[in-house]
Each structure stands twice: as C-alpha cells, then as structure tokens.
Write the structure tokens for this entry.
Amino acid sequence: MAQHAISFVFGPFRLLAARHELLAQGVPVTIGQRALDVLLALVRRHGELVTKDELMSAVWPGLVVEENNLAVHISALRKILGKTEDGKSYLQTVAGRGYRFVAPVTQEDVARAVVPPVVPVEPKDAPHNLPQLLTRLIGRSDELGVLQEHLKRHRLVTLTGAGGVGKTRLAIETGRQALPAYPDGVWFVDLAPIRGLVAALVAEVLGLGHASGSAGSLAAVLKGQQRLIILDNCEHVIAESAALVETLIRTCPELSILATSRERLAIAGENVFRVPSLPTPDATDALTAQAAQRFGAVEMFVERAAALGEGFALTNQNAAIVAAICRRIDGIPLAIELAAPRLRVLSERQLASGLDERFGLLTGRSRTAVPRHQTLQALIAWSYELLDRTEQQMLRRFAVCAGPTSLASIVAVAEPDAAHADVLDLVISLVEKSLILPDRSHDETRYRMPESTRYFALDRLAAEEQHDRHRRHARYFAERFAQATRAFETSASELWLARYGADVDNLRTALTFAFGPDGSRDIALDLVGCSHVIWSELGLMLEHRHWVERARACVTADTPPLTQARLLSWQSGDVKDADDPSDIDDALSAASLYRGLGDAFHEGKMLMRAGAGRLMQDSAQTSTPADHDSGEALLRTARALLAPSGDTKALAQCVSALASARLFADDMGQAQALHREALAITQRLAETEAVAASDGSSGLRT
Amino acid sequence: MDIRFEDLPGQGSKVVLSGRLDSSGAIEIELPFNAVATEKRAVVVDLSGVTILSSSGVRLLLVGAKLCAAKGGKLVILCPQADVAKVLRIARFDALAPIVTSESAALSALGSDLV
C-alpha cells in the first residue's frame, strides 16, 4: 500500500499518485488521464531517462497505440507545467529515445486519511481482463474464501441475489484471487449491455474470433483450456446464457464458469451461491465504535460517510444509531451507497428515523415482511422523491443511456435545449446522491447508472416518452458516429478510441431499439453505416458482421444511395477477407454509389479497398489481369480521388499500396519513391494532430 | 517500427520485426517486407519484438503469406507476444500460416524442400 500514499512535489505542483490528481498551489489542475499517467511515469523516475517504449507500455498497457500519441501528451504536459522558477523546462527530450523529468522533486508520504485505500496487489500468474475496482471491497473475506473452495469443487458457480447486493464486485475479486489456478486466464464478460449474441461476445472478449460465435464452435475452441470465464449479469439473457454454459460445461472438462444473475441458470451441475448482504450488528448489542466497525455494513457506511467531507466519524455515541441505519437497509451495499449521502443534510438520528418512517409505511410496522429487493427499491424511491422535478426528469431520461456516457451525450439525449453547465449541475447533484456514478477511467469523466436504479428510473418514464427518448438517443448516436467516422481519417487510433470507444454500450442499446419492434429501420441503417470504425478499432468482428448482415437485409429500392453506400463502407479485411471477390464487388458498388453522390473522397476510399484486394489476388497469381481493372489501376484512380482532401490515413495507405504494386511490377525505383511519399504523409498527419489535439479541432475537411 | 533480415539455410530468410505494427508501422515496412516475400520462398517472421499488431499489420502479414504461397513457398510466424497472438487468432491468421514458438519448429514447419 505504501506506494499509494505518496505525493511528489515540484515547483508549485503536487502530484498525488493514488488519487491521480495534480494540484497547482493546492488547486486541482485540469489534465487528461493519459497525460497524468505519462507525468507520473516520468516523475517516479525523475532524473532518469524513461524511454518511449517504457512510457507507452506504462500508459497504454496492451493497447494498439500510434507512437505520436505520446508526443501529444508530452506537448500538453509542457503547456500545463510551463517553466520552473529559473526559467528552465520540467521535461527534457532525449532525441529519438525518450524523456527525462529534470526539475528537482521531493517525495512526501501523505496521511492515509486523505488517500482512499486501493485494491489489493494483483497476482501476475495468468492473463486476465478483470476490471480494476475503484473502491476496495469491504466485508467480503468470508465469502471470498468460500467461493475459492466452491470453484475448486464445482465447474459452474452462480452468484445469485437481489440487485445492489454486490454480485459483480464479488465475482471480480473472486476471479482475481483464483488467477493462479487458471493458466489460460480469467476472463470477465459483462452481458448487461446486450440482448442476444452471447456466444459471439464471449468469443470476442476471449480473443477467439475464429470461432463463429455459436456455442458449439466456442466449445470446440475452448476444449482443453484451463480458463475461468465470468459471465456477469446473466439475467438479461438468461435462456441464451444457460444454453451456452450448458454446452461449454459439457464439452470442456477443464473450463470453469462463474456466473452472476438475479436468478439461477437452472442447469445440471450448477452450484448456486446466494450472495448475502453485509453483516450488521444485532439490535441488542451494546456497541462501542470499535465493535460496530467490525461489521461489514458499518465499516462500509462509515467509509462512505467519512468521504462526504462533512466531518462524520464513528464514535461510541453514534455507533448504535449507525448500526440501526445499517440494519434498516439490510446491509445491502448499494443501499448503503444511497443512504450515506443523506448525512449531508440529516443527522444520523434523523436519517434513522426517516428510514423507520419509510419502511413503516411499506410494511404497516411489521418490519420482517420486507423482502430484500423491496428494501433497495424503497430506498431508491425515497432518494427519487427527495429530488426536485428537474432532477427527477433528468434521472428518468438519463436511464435511456447505457454504459459510461459523456456529458455532451447526456445533454443531447435528456435536455437538448438546456445549457451544458445547467445539465452538469443536475448530474453532479445526482452523483452526490449516488443515483448515478462518475466513471473517471476515460479521458473525460463519464457517467453511468447502477442497473437497479436504471430499471427504477425507466419504470417511471411513461411509455410514450420512453419511446421518444429511445428514438432521440438512437438518432443522436447515429449522428455522433457519423462525426466520429469523419474524425477517424486524421486521428491517431488511440486518441480516437479514447474519445469514442466507451460509447459502444450506447451503440448496442441504440441498435437494439432501432431494429426492435418499435424502432426505425432508417435510424438502424444509419447507425450501422456509421459504426464500422468503432467495431473495427475495438476488434469486435462478430458483432460488426452481425449488424451489417442484418442491415443489408433491410435495404430496399427506396433506401437512399448514401445509406446504401455507407452500409458497404467497412475497412478492408473487417467484414469479409480483403481479397474475397465479393468484398471487392461490395467495395466497387460502394464506390459507384459515392460517385453518383459526387463524394470523391469516399469513392476513392472504396476504390482503394477494391484495389488493395485485387492487388492481393494479382500478386498470388501468375497471370496478369487486364490493365484497366488491375489492382494498381484501381489504386491510381483512388489516389487521384483521395488527394484533393489533403493528408489522410486513406491516402497514406493508398500510396503505400501503390508502392507494393510497383514492386510486384519489378520497378524498384518508383516503388521506393512512393514508399517515401507514404511515410511523409504519415509524418505530417502525426505533426498536425499534435496541434489539433491541443486546440480541440480535428476531422476530415470534405 | 524496425525491420531486420537474416539469412536462413537454403532459400529462406528470417524477417525480424520490432516495435508497433499499427497503421503507420505497416506503412513504414510494407515495401521492404513485400520485397523479401516476393523474392524468397521460405520466410520466417519473428514477431517477438512486436508489441502491438493492428488490422493494417495483419493485412501486411497476409499479403506476405500469399506472396510466398504463390511461389509454392511458405511463411511462418515465430514467437508472437500474447496480445499479438490474440489479434492473429481473431483475424483467423493461424489458419493461413503456422505460428510457432522456436526457431527449430519454424524450420521444420517450412519443410525440407524449402530450407
């Protein structure tokens, strides 16, 4: 833990390692997460050379990142830090190798009180994709021990329990502790955002794209592997999950599955573990603060209440009241999250009697009659009723969004006529009440709603408005992805992904609505036509293919040519193999549609795809096709169409492919000239992007 | 992105790639890589130094494999790192070219008529 309680001081700055925060003269500085990671890596080794590779693997572990991203963040850091008192730079560039933090740094230990404890050290035995828990798991050591034993004896363990009881967090930590037992890794698959395609999602998360995504082919690939797969939130797709798990368990003797679900999967061999609430003290206990704190529910309540910064502390005087509060809300972790913030405006005693009143109404004073899920519902309802009308409306409308959502998207979906600052105030107010959660793992802070709260809020959204909001949501994300597709041409992949990657859950929700019974085919086709890049960049080939096929089946003679063209505009090798003759035909059809629309750039891009595919075919054959439709001829036409739009990824790829075409024709001189030209385009793109990233402008000018 | 060549016994060549084989990395090495794949029948591509492989990189390797196959030769992938191996599997590349973890396995995958 020691390294988490450290801060680094240099000039007027203080860098808090654990909190991931940079202060200038005590005031937090606005800085991107990645830039902060770069700074931290440099400051930790101040005075030493940190190579580009070391920085990139520290900041983007395991991600596909273009090298110039680093330069972008270094340039942002130089701007933020400025110069030292004696006019020198904080950062020194070591040409071609890396960077060095050259200003003097002092290191201080920060009292634990200001630094929230962080999750335990992670064993490195096996590969995994387990999400990092943002706050530590409290009061679950017994359950963790029992679950390790269950996993040793049973290959299918299902964690059941009401919403909000903490199934997901327990499953993640169980998976982390079980890592040494699974040499082929522990893989976490969240099923919450999907309504089908369970096997495909599992295949993709596990990196098994060559499985076709059916249960049978997945089982064939996983046979003989010692893996643990965590399937989270199975209740959304219970029948499909159960069928998949049954096949996998039957066919793969070395595979284990840990599922979380509100209901059991109900298949043979299932070992059900009902996740209990956190322990609370009995009403009869005469409690000291020390004794109360030993109960998980109290420990969690105290931690959340102390974090409010209102001076709350557990004392011998308030221990019994706090214990009563925890009992009232059944020690349900999400209920504790919702109740603790009330201490901003209520005393402990007022909160306890408020809860008494609430649950008294529910049960007619017979406390025992309240089932657990009603406790949470009642608490969400109470939190909801305490909101003012605009906050309530925001909560209901925001429930249409799924997964981490940016403020701009919330505005567009929930309150398109309101000012951003006003919506931000509403969002912050809902965050303070724990009704929505901030998610700081992205370059900008995003927001999401716990599933239990989301269901509650959707329930309060009248059917007609629900339909309107979903429609608005789908339409907005179609536009957002159209814009993202344009921006991609001049952006480095990593920066692009940081901006748009987290929108994939909203995309799934929008597609599900748009293709659904109350949806809109027009919006559905727009969504698919504009989302090729995100599936490709996230490596989600099977989902990509599924939606493209579904959309193409909806195309009629009335479908506008632009929509038809966009549906076909995936990148080479994504939906079909690059040299598949039907892929080349699709690219040529798209090119011809774009030609009809007068869109030279996209016509060029599609001709490039066709040309590169044809070149691949040409190169593998001894006979040379007629010149007018050879790969090289297509690439030359493509280049002429792409060039007027300036430097783009497509142009660089096209010129590079032309270099190969000259190589295959034994013209090494021309090949090398073209190769140099392609390199120059990439270089210029990297340089202009560093500028664009700092002033916020980017995207293709067409 | 770095590319280096070593001779193998017989008609073969070993191509050692290192760095990030993403879209700009692929553009940097496309020509020299294709030149070897055009010239040689047996190519071992050592990916142990490649930290990142994107779909542009996969297409580059795919063309290389096809160029070798067109001459009755073969391309073999040697020692990809875990994340890179995952990308190759997603792209079904393992169905087109053998992926091996030692130089001796690479030579035997090429077969006695090539090296």
Chain B touches chain A through 36 residues (CB under 8 Å). The mean pLDDT of chain B is 88. Chain B has one domain: 2-109. The two ends of chain B are 28 Å apart (CA to CA).
